């Protein structure tokens, strides 16, 4: 059976975080659903939901591809989707309604000022809670992009359901009927499904940079900078839709938003590619300290060789050996990220205890792990001692 990496407080925090977020999402789903039903006009909402689902799969798949080096727990990714779809949507709707009533703002001011501020705050709140309760699952910028993407996808889905239903009913200036539904589907679901994930990624990157920062100013300042960038991008996007009867939106999309999105995609891919170099350096240093055998490092950091090692282990020893290889690789990856932060001087307070747990797990799995024979790789994983990250080299 699969081996779970023991971590201080991890089990309690995992259950607590999962239960609280799931309950809050379920509670928020009720008023959010009622608002959509009342605004959209009943049965058409279910048709709108089917159309809104179209971009969800491809966008989620893209984020899962980014997350291949250290796959985040599927439960947390699902909670991110639920938070965006239910909690963030409800909080944003509530805040915008209160702000509009109290401040007596016009619809344009609400869309360009209140909506970006409240929606990015509501979406970013999940990342803050994740950082507070599941700190060991948030390692840096790439994790921030992935978790922010899940929240953004969930938020965009619910918002698209609302707008598609309203477009069919001809409300909010839409032509109505099939023409209104089609035009809204093309603009929101085909041309710009990345918008909300892109905005919230700014907050996720900010928090990721704060995690990696050595200074108190960086730890406090980067999340704020990320949030403000998310708000500015969101405000620019909403503002473009209010100019020249839609012409401004098309121009902003072609000249600003699409290049900015492609730049963000390039950045995300670069960060993902950098993970191999980071893990390789950290794990070779860890191997020098006796935490794992140096010949195992390529089978952890190289995705092609990682898959080949799992296939070989499964063929050589059956499902149990395949699971042992997967668990060994995952523990080594976690150890690599933790050791990288130790080398940078940004390790968390429980780094020694967590590192010891990873090393002990690697030792327990060692006898069951069978690597492909390449002339240099041992069939087991002998470790020189029960050291933890931070010890002197063995």
From TrEMBL:
Keyword Protease in record: yes
Claim: Coiled coil is one of the keywords in the record: no
PANTHER family referenced in this protein's UniProt entry, alphabetically: PROTEASE PRSW
A single MF term (Gene Ontology): metallopeptidase activity
Keyword list, A-Z: Hydrolase, Membrane, Metalloprotease, Protease, Transmembrane, Transmembrane helix
InterPro entries named among the record's database cross-references: PrsW
Region annotation (Disordered) ranges: 370-394
Superkingdom of origin organism: Bacteria
Spans traversing the lipid bilayer: 15-38, 44-66, 75-93, 113-133, 145-165, 185-211, 220-237, 249-271
Pfam families on file: PrsW-protease (PF13367)
Protein name: PrsW family intramembrane metalloprotease
A GO BP annotation: proteolysis
């Amino acid at each position: 059976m699969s081996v779970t990496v023991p971590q201080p407080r991890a089990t309690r925090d995992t259950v607590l975080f999962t239960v609280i977020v799931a309950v809050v999402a379920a509670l928020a789903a009720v008023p959010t659903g009622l608002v959509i039903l009342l605004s959209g006009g009943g049965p058409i909402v279910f048709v709108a939901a089917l159309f809104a689902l179209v971009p969800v799969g491809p966008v989620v798949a893209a984020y899962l591809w980014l997350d291949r080096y250290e796959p985040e727990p599927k439960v947390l990714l699902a909670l991110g989707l639920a938070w965006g779809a239910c909690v963030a949507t409800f909080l944003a709707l509530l805040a915008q309604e209160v702000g509009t009533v109290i401040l007596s703002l016009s619809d344009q001011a609400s869309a360009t000022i209140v909506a970006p501020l409240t929606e990015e705050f509501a979406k970013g709140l999940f990342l803050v809670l994740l950082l507070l309760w599941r700190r060991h699952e948030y390692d840096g910028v790439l994790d921030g992009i992935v978790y922010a993407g899940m929240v953004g996808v969930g938020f965009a889905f619910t918002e698209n359901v609302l707008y598609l239903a309203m477009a069919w009913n001809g409300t909010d200036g839409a032509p109505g009927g099939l023409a209104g539904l089609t035009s809204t589907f093309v603009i929101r679901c085909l041309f710009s499904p990345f918008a909300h994930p892109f905005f919230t990624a700014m907050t996720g990157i900010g928090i990721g940079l704060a995690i990696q920062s050595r200074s108190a100013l960086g730890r406090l300042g980067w999340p704020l900078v990320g949030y403000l960038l998310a708000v500015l991008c969101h405000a620019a996007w909403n503002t473009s839709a209010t100019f020249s009867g839609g012409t401004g939106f098309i121009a902003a999309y072609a000249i600003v938003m699409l290049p900015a999105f492609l730049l963000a995609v390039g950045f995300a891919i670069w960060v993902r590619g950098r993970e191999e170099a980071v893990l390789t350096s950290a794990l070779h240093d860890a191997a020098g300290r006796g935490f794992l055998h140096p010949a195992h490092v390529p089978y952890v950091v190289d995705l092609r060789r990682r898959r080949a090692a799992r296939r070989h282990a499964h063929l050589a020893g059956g499902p149990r050996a395949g699971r042992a290889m997967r668990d060994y690789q995952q523990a080594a990856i976690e150890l690599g990220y933790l050791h990288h932060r130790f080398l940078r001087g940004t390790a968390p307070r429980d780094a020694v205890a967590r590192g010891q747990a990873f090393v002990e797990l690697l030792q327990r799995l060692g006898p069951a792990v069978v690597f492909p024979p390449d002339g240099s790789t041992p069939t087991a994983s002998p470790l020189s001692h029960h050291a933890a990250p931070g010890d002197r080299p063995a």
